Structures are given as structure tokens and as C-alpha cells.
């Protein structure tokens, strides 16, 4: 019997079917596995990256905090050093001042200049000119009509005019305060002695303080003005100072030591030092544009002889 060369078609299909199924089964298993593996890979990689960047961030934060703390410590140390230096300087200055004052108190007169020949024999006149060439005669002259304004002694007429001036300024919202007014011959003597001792020489003291018997404050017609804690050089930059340059003459006051007049007045410019000369003279000086008493009254000035 002859073997058939080909199997019938239905038999072929029957045999091939399991082969196809197997192939599909592999695909069915492989594809999801691949997908799951890929997803897992992505998830794990992402997680690892996130963990790494998180820990890096924490480390960076720690580093920044450490730097910040170091910087704060440096600033604190600097501040402490500055405070220590300031305290030491203040203690030294206080000690020096106390020693100089002690010396001045224990040392009898002798550091002050010998009694000069003084020619201001009418010191009670409200237009008396006192400067480094013209001193009080008698040298320890004192006014007899002192009153008190804001706790400072001043001659009656000058005090009442100053009060009117201050009221007018206050009405415009400008408060003016006093830092010094009348100073007696004895006050000036001890002040001058103090500066001679502190500076080691009369020449050095002369640049800071008037010699006793030469200070215009002894007239009882002079005030040093301030605004709160703004005094001396600071006063010249205040609205109060500007107001005074416009209105002080109406109350009889002049700025006694103007800018650029040192060779005439003998004193460096002082925006805070105001002298009462009476309303008529103050207004006339202003009208004529004459800035110094020396020029107005034709009296010599400048430095000590
Ligand atoms: Zn003064």
C-alpha cells in the first residue's frame, strides 16, 4: 500500500493549531512582563533619584545653616569686640577727664594767664563788645539782674526777649532749647584751667575755651541754643537755625560768630551762639548787612594780643 504524500487539509489544521497557540501564549506572557518590568524600572529609578535629590537637599540645607551660623557668630564676635573697645575708650576718657579735673582743682591759679589789662568798663551795657582783645573791667564783673529761663541764668531783658522769640518759633512748630547761658568769671576760670590741664598748654586751650574775663557768656546776654540733643555744629543744620537767621533780629539777637569772620571776631563760626544787643541794633545791623559787632561799633578784634 502506498503512503499518502500529503495529509488532508483538516488534519493539517488540527496539527498546526497548538503551534499557533503556543506562539500566542509566549506573546501574551512576554508583553505584559516587559511592560511591568519597564514600569518597575521607571518607578524604581524615579524613586531612587527622588531619594538622592532629597538627601542632597537636606545636606545642602545643613551646610547653609552651618554657614549662616558661622556668619552670625562672626558678626556677634565683631559686635562684642566693638562694644568692648567702646567701653574701654569711654572708661579711659572718663578716667583722663577725672584726673585732669582733679589736677585743675588741686592746682592753684598759675595755669591761667596773668590778670590782663581790660578796657570794657561798661560791661552792663547791652552793646558792650567783649572779644579776645577786650575783656571785663573789673575782670570778675557779674550782672545784677539775672533771672532764670528754662533753668538757665540770663539778664532780665535778654531773657524776656528770648522767651518771646522761643514762643514765636514754637507757634511755627519749632522748639528751641538752651544748652548754656550766663557763665560767671569763676565758672570760666575752672573751665579754662580744665582745658589747659587736659591739653597741656594754654595755646591748645585757647582754641577750645575763652580765657576767664574774655568770655561773652559773662555778660549774661548770650545763649548757646540747641534742638533736643542736636547742639554745637549740629544746630546749624536745623530748621530752627534757619528760622533764627530770618527772625532773631526782630527780638534783638544776632549770630555773634558768623562764617568767614574769624579774623575779626577771633572765634571760629558758631551757629549756636546768639548774643542779645537790643532790637534797634540787631535790626540796623541786619538792614546794613553788617555781620559783626566789631565792624558795627568800630572796635578791634581777632586773636589775643
Ligand atoms: Zn557760646
Catalogue the ligands.
zinc ion
Q: SSE string, helix = H, strand = E?
A: HEEHEHHEHEHEHH
Structural class: alpha+beta
Q: Which term fits the overall shape?
A: elongated
Compute the number of structural domains.
2
Largest sheet, spatial ordering of strands: 3-4-6-5
Major β-sheet annotation: 4 strands, antiparallel
- CATH topology-level fold name of the largest domain: Muramoyl-pentapeptide Carboxypeptidase, domain 2
Approximately what portion of the residues adopt beta-strand conformation?
5-15%
- Mean of pLDDT: 86
Runs in which pLDDT lies below 50 for 5 or more consecutive residues are: 107-112
User: What is the CA-CA span between the terminal residues?
Assistant: 165 Å
Number of strands: 6
Contiguous helical run count: 8
Taking all Cα atoms into account, the compactness measure Rg is 47 Å
Helix content: 40-55%
Indicate the CATH architecture of the largest domain. 2-Layer Sandwich
Amino acid at each position: 500500500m502506498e503512503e499518502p504524500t500529503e495529509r488532508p487539509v483538516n488534519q493539517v489544521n488540527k496539527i498546526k493549531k497548538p503551534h499557533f497557540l503556543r506562539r500566542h501564549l509566549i506573546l501574551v506572557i512576554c508583553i505584559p512582563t516587559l511592560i511591568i518590568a519597564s514600569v518597575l524600572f521607571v518607578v524604581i529609578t524615579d524613586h531612587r533619584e527622588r531619594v538622592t535629590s532629597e538627601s542632597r537637599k537636606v545636606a545642602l540645607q545643613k551646610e547653609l545653616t552651618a554657614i549662616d551660623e558661622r556668619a552670625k557668630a562672626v558678626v556677634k564676635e565683631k559686635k562684642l569686640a566693638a562694644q568692648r573697645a567702646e567701653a574701654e575708650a569711654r572708661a579711659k576718657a572718663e578716667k583722663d577727664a577725672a584726673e585732669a579735673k582733679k589736677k585743675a582743682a588741686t592746682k592753684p591759679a598759675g595755669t591761667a594767664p596773668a590778670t590782663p589789662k581790660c578796657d570794657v568798663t561798661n560791661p552792663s551795657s547791652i552793646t558792650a563788645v567783649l572779644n579776645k582783645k577786650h575783656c571785663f573791667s573789673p575782670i570778675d564783673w557779674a550782672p545784677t539782674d539775672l533771672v532764670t529761663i528754662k533753668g538757665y541764668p540770663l539778664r532780665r531783658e535778654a531773657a524776656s526777649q528770648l522767651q518771646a522769640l522761643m514762643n514765636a518759633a514754637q507757634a511755627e512748630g519749632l522748639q528751641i532749647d538752651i544748652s548754656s547761658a550766663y557763665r560767671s568769671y569763676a565758672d570760666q576760670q575752672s573751665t579754662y584751667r580744665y582745658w589747659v590741664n587736659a591739653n597741656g598748654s594754654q595755646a591748645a586751650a585757647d582754641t577750645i575755651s575763652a580765657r576767664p574775663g574774655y568770655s561773652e557768656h559773662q555778660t549774661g546776654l548770650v545763649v548757646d541754643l540747641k534742638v533736643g540733643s542736636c547742639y554745637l555744629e549740629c544746630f546749624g543744620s536745623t530748621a530752627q537755625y534757619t528760622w533764627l537767621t530770618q527772625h532773631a533780629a526782630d527780638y534783638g539777637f544776632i549770630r555773634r560768630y558768623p562764617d568767614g569772620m574769624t579774623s575779626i571776631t577771633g572765634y571760629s563760626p558758631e551757629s549756636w551762639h546768639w548774643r542779645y544787643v537790643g532790637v534797634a541794633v540787631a535790626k540796623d545791623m541786619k538792614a546794613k548787612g553788617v555781620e559783626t559787632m566789631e565792624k558795627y561799633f568800630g572796635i578791634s578784634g581777632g586773636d589775643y594780643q
